[in-house]
Write a structure and sequence with these properties.
Length: 350
């Protein structure tokens, strides 16, 4: 344990204490303050903030996220900054509703309860938690799982809902050679094994705006947190008009379809629109084809009255964001989780 310092966040007027040994972002999470973030690796700039007063020490980060001239001006990345004095920070990117309603993060040990392929490259992983740990989360959030035998972590979004708090369910894309998911197919990870899990993280949670309809756009394993949000809406009897556009390559890459089609009857005014990008998805496919964003552009009209939730690979999220902004949706009505991977940091500093 290192020295303790006080962090003051402006303009929200929140004060909390951090240890010198933890990053300011980790200290905030530990105390249930869900500050805006993305990679937590100093690469994406989502946590960039301005140091008004005080001093921070930085761990290694990407100079793409924080160029040297910005660091000299006083900008910092909260996921890499350690306070070495009391620090006043100006937040530039924040959602006060989410910031104040976070759940304090916990580190727990979970047991692999189920591991099965859903498609040729997406797996379902279910983890059992010890009820004594009292792990809590909100629909749409994610956890960090430590890759067994290493200090590396990978982030995964829950597809489950908090009403079954001791069972977390994930949808995980398997990349050959991937440090974590690579272990699914070769038997390195098996039912009964234990995993270190930390969380919850993330702001991909449903904002309470009953007057606005909901537009969900997902691709690949990005279905997971959207399924969590939809399941939670079913439990709550939510009646907001909503539609979920889901992009996959071919029919063999579609999964969870029975539940999503069933939701069309269980949720008031909900439609599930799967979209296949394969040039020839086969004679049995009568649904939408092409890029999911092109189908959204064609089927949706004016988007100014929606709250949009985007999740999946970064190129899909970026393309959807561009479309929604062009269709007139305000940036602060777009919530997203990009499933960024642990690519090597280029242009790193320190
Ligand atoms: C907030 C957040 C939530 C996430 N939630 C999920 C989730 O619910 N489900 C999920 O599947 N993933 C999710 N991810 C991504 C996940 O954290 C891992 O990065 C991903 O699963 C790869 O980990 P790995 O250890 O298997 O592969 P790594 O060891 O990180 O990668 C090894 C190799 O696999 C290949 N590879 C890895 N990722 C990709 C890619 N995207 N495209 C092409 N090749 C790749 C590359 O060749 C790479 O060198 C999330 C990421 C974030 C930031
Ligand atoms: S969360 Fe800090 S740079 Fe990505």
């Amino acid at each position: 344990m290192g020295d303790k310092h006080t962090i003051r966040l402006q303009p929200v007027d929140i004060e909390f204490e951090v240890d010198e040994d933890e990053t300011i972002l980790d200290g905030a999470f530990r105390q249930g303050l869900m500050l805006m973030h993305g990679c937590k690796e100093g690469q994406c700039a989502a946590c960039k903030s301005f140091v008004l007063e005080g001093e921070v020490d930085m761990d290694k980060y990407s100079t793409f996220a924080l160029p040297d001239f910005e660091e000299e001006e006083g900008w910092t990345l909260l996921c890499k900054a350690h306070a070495v004095s009391d620090v006043d920070i100006e937040l530039v990117n924040y959602d006060e509703e989410v910031l104040r309603s976070g759940i304090p993060t916990k580190q727990v040990v979970a047991t692999v309860a189920e591991l099965e392929p859903l498609t040729s490259d997406i797996w379902r992983l279910a983890l059992d938690l010890d009820p004594a740990d009292g792990f809590e989360y909100k629909p749409g959030q994610y956890v960090d799982i430590t890759v067994p035998g290493t200090d590396d972590v990978r982030s995964f979004s829950m597809a489950s809902v908090p009403s079954t708090p001791n069972r977390l369910e994930f949808m995980i894309r398997h990349y050959p050679g991937g440090k974590f998911a690579g272990g699914f197919a070769d038997g390195t990870l098996q039912v009964g094994h234990e995993l270190d899990v930390k969380g919850p993280f993330g702001s991909f949670t449903l904002r309470d705006r009953p007057e606005r309809r909901l537009l969900f756009i997902g691709g690949g394993a990005g279905m997971a947190p959207i399924v969590s949000l939809l399941r939670a809406r079913r439990e709550a009897g939510c009646t907001r008009r909503s539609v979920f556009y889901y992009g996959a390559r071919g029919t063999a890459d579609l999964f969870q379809v029975d539940e999503l089609e069933g939701l069309q009857h269980q949720l008031a005014d909900f439609a599930f629109v799967p979209v296949l990008s394969d040039a020839d998805p086969g004679p049995d496919w009568t649904g939408e084809t092409g890029f999911v964003t092109d189908v959204v552009a064609r089927l949706e009209g004016d988007l100014r009255d929606v709250d949009a939730y985007l999740c999946g690979p970064p190129p899909m999220v970026d393309a959807a964001m561009e479309l929604l902004l062009a269709q007139g949706l305000a940036e602060d009505r777009i919530y997203f989780d990009k499933f960024t991977t642990s690519a090597e940091t280029e242009g790193s500093s320190l």
